[in-house]
Task: structure prediction
Amino acid sequence: MTAVLENPATESPKPEVGAVPSFEVTLRIRRYNPESEHGEESTWDEFTVTAHGTDRVLDALHMIKWEQDGSLTFRRSCAHGVCGSDAMRINGRNRLACKTLLKDVNPDKPITVEPIKGLPVVKDLVVDMEPFFASYREIMPFLITSGNEPTRERLQSAEDRERFDDTTKCILCAACTSSCPVFWTDGQYFGPAAIVNAHRFIFDSRDEGATQRLEILNDKEGVWRCRTTFNCTEACPRGIEVTKAIQEVKRAMITRAF
Amino acid sequence: MAQAQTPSAIAAPRSPYARRKTTRGNFELYSWVFMRASGVVLLVLVFGHLFVNLMVGEGVHAIDFAFVGGKWSSPFWQVWDLLMLWLAMFHGTNGVRTVVNDYAQRDSTRGVLKSLLYLASAIVVILGTLVIFTFNPCPPGAPAELLPSICFPN
Result:
């Protein structure tokens, strides 16, 4: 059988072959600029752009910044989901703007874009990541060994590597930590990202600093503040099973203590 | 073009903070394990309690002063009820403590709420323990038909 066009009459201007259909989309962006007339108050701005089905939220932000309002401020480096610079709260969920297609976040309604929650906002969508990185540094994210340096690579079996494979994927975008309701309260909690990166070394057979890292995370603000709400697992743009990693660190602490 | 909308009720977003100090120790670890362990034990204790009080024999209609007095004159039920009281109170208090820690944003609020919590649970635990151990199933001068059979040894 051959496919037949059902209503050839209604097709008025024939679209170009292979053309990507375009649509209008409104972005509702939370702005903050203490040097503007709004002062310490943050405001909502709406922008409408013409986008294509292949466009991401980041492309829409670019169109706004380049064509409508050059003062719109956001972070992005690679723009392809690797550097972890452009985590933001899109329609109430933490995502990477460069990995979120506009057509996947219901472009029929205005798409809200906010800075990630829980970290101090510097300007518009840019937050101060320093508290986040401070927690990351605290768990000592580097290989700790003793004895002489080997003259060749530190070999490891495929099974040993598999043990912590999931947590090596972290790009430190802070989507998980800033989606955590416990972190929102007072920002004292270490946060999922720091625990994920501790997990990456705690379960590495070549590393000898597991005890120290468990000691650091066995803190009032450490793993025990996790309430397993799974916000972090849902937010992670790399698909890391964050809550599972946190639970594995908890288990390691309990087997160590008893 | 951007249309600046009037700000409604958006809090000022700049609130810097840093981790105040390290608070390492096994307290939270033990508290976490206690919640799981006491939860399992409480399941047995509470459902055992409900079964014995409400379903065995005459069931719920048998509960009166004599029933309770008879139960508490046996060391087995004294220990059962004491365990149930203590575990339930510590389990509940610890749970509310974590809720306060999670939701109170200022240290002063947190301190006040936790003080009230500890005071309330201390009163309940002490009063309850006192009642279980000093309970007299045969108060002098009480009408005989309200008392348990153990008050009449002959």
